[in-house]
Amino acid sequence: MSLIAAERIKLTSIRSPWWCAAFGVLATVGVGSISMAGNEDTGFSGVPSTQLGYGLGMAVVMVMATLAVTTEYSVGMIRTTFLAAPARGPVLLAKTLVVALAAGLVGLLAAFGSWALGLVLMPGRDLALHGPAEWRQVGGVGLVYLVAAVFAIAVGILIRHTAGAVALVLTWALMAESLLAMIPGFEPAARWLPFQAAKQFLLGGRPADGAPLTEQPWVAMGYFAAVSGGLLAIAIAVAKRRDA
Amino acid sequence: MIETRGLTKRYGPTLAVDDLSFTVRPGRVTGFLGPNGAGKSTTMRMILGLDRPTSGHALIGGRPYEDLPHPLREVGALLDAKWVHPNRSARAHLRWLARSNRLPAARVDEVLDQVGLTAVADRRAGTFSLGMSQRLGIAGALLGDPGVLLFDEPVNGLDPEGIVWIRRFMRDLAAEGRSVLVSSHLLPEMALTATDLVVIGRGRLIAESTTAEFVEGAVTSTVRVRSPQLLELAEVLLRAGIDVQAEPGDDEALAVAGTDIARIGELAAGAGVVLHELALHRASLEEAFMHITGHDVEYSAGGSAGDRNHSAVLAAAGR
């Protein structure tokens, strides 16, 4: 508990996470509103059509999560952290928990903000949260941001350098997966890409490119969480072995 | 109390720390002395569980650092003053440190006051001068009121006021019964601060003794004699069984070792030799330190043949 409290102080006592959070919410709502205001045919209708901006906010929280680790490494502060808490597994897990929860909170604010704006911009559509599916499509954004932050932290621990880790996280989440899915003959493998699974969980049905991994959105989410959790486990194991 | 036993760290083909065993006792300031690159920082990082030894171990109060449940309450360390987030205030930095080891938040203000940073506690640590960063690092080390303290080159880059402050500070900490290990590559600095010395070169232990003993053993004094009748004087001294060497860089002087200054004067007077100068020359601590660690310097310059001869002679003579 004391490690979690310490990590919370770390995250909230510098300005950049606050800026990231605010920017993440605003950017998501803003991008979402563009497609909603245009009332264009995005291939989605109903509640999912309010959440098309989620990718941008996710990129922002992933940058925030990566920085939470790599700035500690780049200024050497990770050693101060390990001096205060020599058991590296617990302290890295505490950091992950705090940062991922913050990312999830940003996701919830962004998602319900977008949804509320959708009620205003698209009054003709049925955007009511009728049941679990609709709640998942909005509230699930928080869960996706949370797990995406875990993914980013794991990459941050492994790479340690800010520029490299941010570049890898962003190109993978925003570009590489879509590009891989477009390679002819790669479709069967493309559905195993974690961020495609996250997209499927949120927007339902089949992703725009490639066959779905599963028809069950929660199975897709579970797969995304398992990949990120596995990556974090590897990262912590590596961090334990390494000289700080 | 810090004990290292057979501590060894190998980076590929390089042996950074080689079978190092020493003890740091309570109530003493132990100077950890060695040239740059001798392995001091690596040793301290291994003591603190940051680097993993290739073999051997280090214990603090009988336990490895990783086994301390709240390490900041038992060990305070300042290895690098820049290990803080530049955009976090000094107070927030100490707050998270205190929280991580379940220390009362009131300790933060106490240590800020102790190191004289209260006025700038809410400024971002990145705006601090080196001296202020060092003080913040010391505040972090003192947070848990630990019985063991480690400082790596704490006076590097400090102004004279800061140096005097740190010296007195470390002596006060030891006087309160704490074990203090402070590294430096400067023997004169250590002679002013440390009561005990652990001297290493190329990762190996060279000496472990009190500072007084070490300095006494290291510093050889010679007597410098100038005379217009140098040959006669040399003969007189050699007949008396006294070792005589030519003073380097001076044709009219001798360097005499192993006897006291009065006896040389008496011998010269007895033989009717005129003296122009008779002076005690005490080797500086720097020279003494170079003698002892001379051929253990990791990154020695290419050096001329003369230099190598010099250190070979010293090695033969001194060790």
Most extensive chain contact? Answer: A-B, 28 and 32 residues
Helix and strand pattern of chain B: EEEHEEHHHEHEHEEHEHEEHEHH
Number of strands of chain A: 0
Q: Whole-number average pLDDT of chain B?
A: 87
| Head-to-tail CA distance between termini of chain B | 30 Å
Order of helices and strands of chain A: HHHHHHHHHH
Tally of structural domains of chain A:
1
Number of domains of chain B: 2
Rg of chain A, rounded, reads 18 Å
**Over all CA atoms, what is the radius of gyration of chain B?**
24 Å
Low-confidence stretches of chain B: 298-319
Question: Poorly predicted ranges of chain A (pLDDT <50, ≥5 residues)?
Answer: none
Short structural description:
The complex is a heterodimer of chains A (244) and B (319). With 244 residues, chain A is an all-alpha fold. In chain A, 76% of the residues lie in helices and 0% in strands.
Write the layout of secondary structure elements.
The complex is a heterodimer of chains A (244) and B (319).
Chain A lengths: L1 H11 L3 H23 L15 H22 L1 H8 L3 H34 L10 H28 L2 H21 L4 H4 L3 H10 L13 H25 L3
Chain B lengths: L1 E10 L2 E11 L4 E5 L6 H8 L7 E6 L14 E4 L11 H11 L5 H10 L14 H13 L5 E5 L7 H16 L3 E6 L2 H7 L2 E6 L2 E7 H8 L2 E6 L3 H10 L3 E4 L6 E5 L3 H11 L5 E6 L2 H9 L11 H14 L1
Parallel strand pairs in B: 3-7, 3-8, 5-6, 6-7
Antiparallel strand pairs in B: 1-2, 1-4, 8-9, 10-12, 10-13, 11-12
Helix pairs in contact in B: 2-3, 3-4, 8-9
